[in-house]
């Protein structure tokens, strides 16, 4: 069981809070247990949208596997308010020192800055308060125009909807990109990426669509990419004809089902080779009967 503690401050933005909470709650519904807690310095918090929210005053016991998330709050061009007490800052520092992960959404980066967790690390926040965050915390490396950053278990996001991207990233790191893609699909959002890096996963790269037939087909291919999978079998499994599946799949992903499977195999093979496997061993591991096919695919990508 992984515990996710949301630290709430007066004026917290609902989407900064609800977006990540929904991601972890959805992942829990898929069998990846998360326990969500809400902590504040007072028992009742009024959000920026006027909704009162109840919170616990006592912090739960946390392990290094657990996560603290600081959602952002309404600002007037300055991330420096509201007041955050020393006990809260001590809790953030202590959790990170024990090996835990801390994250922020939007102006919540200010809390991490006050705790000294941004010093010498890359971070980001909402574009309205980036300059002020950099001024208040000159040892921080504030990165502009990205969705989120991650640096030594300190993760910050740009704000509002990007908190969903941050949470999906954490789910992908902990449980794999296929789980993150499934969560994104359930939430009817795109599985997006960090703005300053290339897409890292074939699974996520080709999940930015809303075609349910194709998502169901991808679920099957993702789970069985290293085994033979014929188009008639795949089409029957999702309840459509072969031509219909091919047309939908190509339109949604830019690839045929076979090319998608090959891309998954190639990505996994490259990972194995990078960790010391021979080309022949990697080819067999990902399902290629003939290693020459893997060599051809690697050659095409390098060309």
UniProtKB/TrEMBL annotation:
Entry keyword set: Transcription, Transcription regulation
Signal peptide, first to last residue: none
Domain HTH araC/xylS-type: 215-303
PANTHER family for this protein: ARAC-FAMILY TRANSCRIPTIONAL REGULATOR, HTH-TYPE TRANSCRIPTIONAL REGULATOR RV1931C
Name recorded for this polypeptide: DJ-1/PfpI family protein
